[in-house]
Structures are given as C-alpha cells and as structure tokens.
Design a protein that fits this description.
Rossmann fold
Length: 93
C-alpha cells in the first residue's frame, strides 16, 4: 500500500458502519506519511434496503481516516451506477 497512488476499499456494513475486520486493519496501521496523497475510494454493501445511515456513517469514518493519513478521500459507492461513476473518475474520464 505504501507505493499505491490509488487505494480501493470494499467492506460490508454491519450495524451502520464498516466491518470490524476493516476497523481492525485500520487500527493496526501506523500514522505516518506512507499513504500521503493517495486517492481513497470505498465500495460498501449491506443487506438493509435503505443504506443511507450506513453510507453516511462509513463515509464519516473513512473521511476522518483519510485526513489522518493525509489521503484524498474521493468517494464512496454502493450501487452499480455509483461504482461505474467512481470507476470513470478513477481512470480520468
């Protein structure tokens, strides 16, 4: 990850936030400049028919994490169309 310009995170959402596995992974990362200026994209999915609360909560968490690691949080996607738009942004179209 240290040499990545783009980081894409995928996570299921449980209890309206990212998975415990992702939280644990992030908890074990060292705060330094290794990820500085990397673009961070997130794809989330859950079983609830209305994912608004989960998206907002996960967005808030990942936004704070990106600030802490000095990354650019580009966005979060859930649906196929949102993922397609994110992909277009990622490849510069």
């Amino acid at each position: 990850m240290k040499d990545a310009d783009v980081i894409v995170i995928g996570t299921p959402v449980y209890w309206s936030n990212m998975s415990g596995y992702l939280t644990t992974f992030i908890d074990h990362m060292q705060i330094n400049n290794d990820l500085k200026n990397a673009d961070l994209y997130a794809i989330v999915q859950g079983a609830d028919s209305n994912q608004t609360a989960a998206i907002n909560s996960t967005y808030g968490s990942l936004n704070r994490i990106s600030i802490r690691f000095k990354m650019h949080f580009v966005g979060i996607a859930q649906t196929d169309s949102q993922i397609q738009k994110m992909h277009q942004k990622m490849i510069g179209k």
